[in-house]
Each structure stands twice: as structure tokens, then as C-alpha cells.
């Protein structure tokens, strides 16, 4: 009936909802773990470990990765002249010719180094692998050991609201420093030098 009137009412509206970015989870796992072996003074790009990064859904940007020496490492910081991260694009656990530009480079300080990746993108569609490699000084301590590890999820930085899945126990084996192949090394030995020595004397020991 056109004469019917609706009851008066106040304005009705919903409460406001805030749209936030979806939180995705980055999983960090072991990709490659070279077995304990000898490495050599002056050797470069020695692959110690490989990490596999996987995103749960949308792409996640990795800001940095912190690496500590293993608890059994004995090679002191100055003898590791560089710590590097490489993108292992083909996921074969090796630094190939087309992967030879490091993503990041740094040096150990107090047994740890944080390597900035500046937003290394990990897509939800495919895992990405990162290799950890070191350069050794030509005077690195013989028989010293070197290995690396990300201590736990706090070692990997991603921007909020994304998070890193909790982990522990990821660690490389220790490599043992040896003299370069074909290198001549000299070590002092005890020698008793006669005193006096005489004119025309031969084979008088002077230095050991």
C-alpha cells in the first residue's frame, strides 16, 4: 500500500577491517653437506655447506643470513679471508661457471658473519639453494679445522609479517687445512753448531 511508511532508523554500517599482507613461512633445510676432507692453504671458493630455502605460498624476500663457525672449528678468523654465498641455480651443489658471482661476501668477526642479500626472492613455486663457500689464507694454520652453521631460525632474516620456520642442528662437517699441493714447507729443527769452526772445515752444521 503506497500509504505504508517504514519505521525510522539510524544509519547502519559495518565496522572497519584492516587489510594486511598474508604471512608466509620460509623453511630452511640442508641442501648439500660435503663430507669432511682436506682443504688447502690459499684455496678459494671452498664449498662448506648448502642451504635450501622454501616459501610456503607467496614469494619471500630474504634480507640476510648469519653464519657461525662450528663449535669444533679451530681456524681463527684472520685466516678465513672471505665467506661467500652463491646462488646454486641448477641445485647441483657446485659453483658452476655461470654461478661464479657471489650473492654476498664478508669476513668472520668473533667467529660469525652476517651476509646481506638485499631481498633474495624465494618463490612459493620453487625452492632456491644457497651455497656457503670460503677463501683461505696462504698462511692458514696447518691442521686447523673450519666449518660453518646457521645456529637457528634467527640466523635468517625476512621482513615482517613473514617468518622463518624454527630449526636447529644445521651444520657442515669440518674441513682440515693442509699445505698446498707441491708446496715446500720449512720447520725448525734443533741443531748443535760447533764452536769454534776451523778454516777448511766442511759440512759444519749452522742452521736447522
Provide a brief overview of the structure:
This protein has no helices and 13 strands. The protein is mostly beta strands and 208 residues long. Strands 6-5-8-3-1-12 form a six-stranded mixed β-sheet, with no helix packed on it.
Topology:
Blueprint: E1 25-32, E2 38-40, E3 46-55, E4 60-69, E5 80-87, E6 104-106, E7 112-122, E8 128-136, E9 145-146, E10 148-149, E11 156-157, E12 163-164, E13 175-178
Parallel strand pairs: 1-12, 2-13
Antiparallel strand pairs: 1-3, 3-8, 4-7, 4-10, 4-11, 5-6, 5-8, 9-13
Proportion of residues in extended strands: 35-45%
- Average of per-residue pLDDT values: 89
Q: How many H/I helices?
A: 0
Secondary structural class? mainly beta
Tell me the number of strands. Answer: 13
Query: Whole-number radius of gyration?
Result: 29 Å
Tell me the strand order in the biggest sheet.
Answer: 6-5-8-3-1-12
Unreliable segments of 5+ consecutive residues: none
H and E order: EEEEEEEEEEEEE
Distance between the termini: 122 Å
Task: Based on the model shown, name its key terms.
0% helix, mainly beta, six-stranded mixed sheet, 208 residues, 13 strands
